[in-house]
Amino acid sequence: MTLRVERDKATGVAVVTLDRERKHNAIDLETAAELRAVWREFRYEEDVRAVVLTGAGTAAFCTGIDRSVDVPQPASPYSIDDPLVAIGPKSGDLWKPVVAAVNGMACGGAFYLLGESEFLIASSSATFFDPHTTYGMVSAYEAVYMAQRMPFGEAARMSLMGTAERLSAARAHEIGLVSELAAPEELLPAALRAAETLAGFPTEAVQGTVRALWSAKQVALQQALAQAPALISLGNLTPERQAELFGSRRPGSEFRLR
């Protein structure tokens, strides 16, 4: 198991923890399958009325897909198999509120999860960045999700600047990506307080409100995501060239946005 799932019937809150701390909670195929399954399970569990999503440890919330994963691709340039496209709660048709507790790095494929959470609470030490362009890859799904949650210029800067800079937790809070900052040791309690409040309200009303909020942007989101596979097929370097760049460039930041 690469997910740790804890349910509290007394509060109605489930905590889902990406549990691959040694891998910075990167998502392999097993993790992706477990995420898809747990969102579907929660749809039928009346004792779960709100969810907190976080990562194990303090170094990273999630660093996207595990680069050691082998995902065979169809030969057609019109098709692409992305193991992360269905890892988010909305992709699993879950309309119970999900609060993301972001601890440490959140980058790349982490945005599939953050993009489908209701709101984000972050540790003061959290950072956000998107490494795709640095390594010759198109940021398509990630950029779309972040463009829905951030001012366009901020989303464009983060998506295009790759590993050259990281968005600090303070800046993420200033621009509205993050709704609350907490000291690292207070992150999970802060997220639990919010989730327990939501779980304490009539769940039909909460889920209906979640659905209404997402309906406000879902048409544009789906149209944008539909273009992602073609953009990735056209713009990505070959896997061999990507591997060369990953070996020669260290993820990090030359400067940060404050």
Describe the secondary structure blueprint for this structure.
Layout: E1 3-8, E2 13-18, H1 29-44, E3 50-55, E4 60-62, E5 98-102, E6 105-107, H2 110-114, E7 119-123, E8 127-129, H3 141-147, H4 152-161, E9 165-168, H5 169-174, E10 180-182, H6 187-200, H7 203-215, H8 218-235, H9 239-248, E11 255-257
Parallel strand pairs: 2-3, 3-5, 4-6, 5-7, 6-8, 7-10, 9-11
Antiparallel strand pairs: 1-2, 8-9
Helix pairs in contact: 3-4
List keywords for this structure.
258 residues, 11 strands, alpha/beta, 2-enoyl-CoA Hydratase, Chain A, domain 1
Q: Secondary-structure element order, as H and E?
A: EEHEEEEHEEHHEHEHHHHE
Per CATH, the superfamily is 2-enoyl-CoA Hydratase, Chain A, domain 1
Number of helices: 9
Strand order in the sheet with the most strands: 1-2-3-5-7-10
Overall body shape? globular
Determine the structural class based on helices, strands and strand pairing: alpha/beta
> What is the highest CATH level, the class?
Alpha Beta
Task: Point out poorly predicted stretches.
Answer: none
Calculate the mean pLDDT score and round it: 90
- Quote the beta fraction: 15-25%
- Radius of gyration computed on alpha carbons: 18 Å
Q: Main beta sheet, described?
A: 6 strands, mixed
CATH architecture: Alpha-Beta Complex
Between the first and last Cα atoms, what is the distance in angstroms?
37 Å
Number of separate structural domains: 1
Q: CATH fold name, please?
A: 2-enoyl-CoA Hydratase, Chain A, domain 1
Compute the number of strand runs. Answer: 11
Helicity level: 25-40%
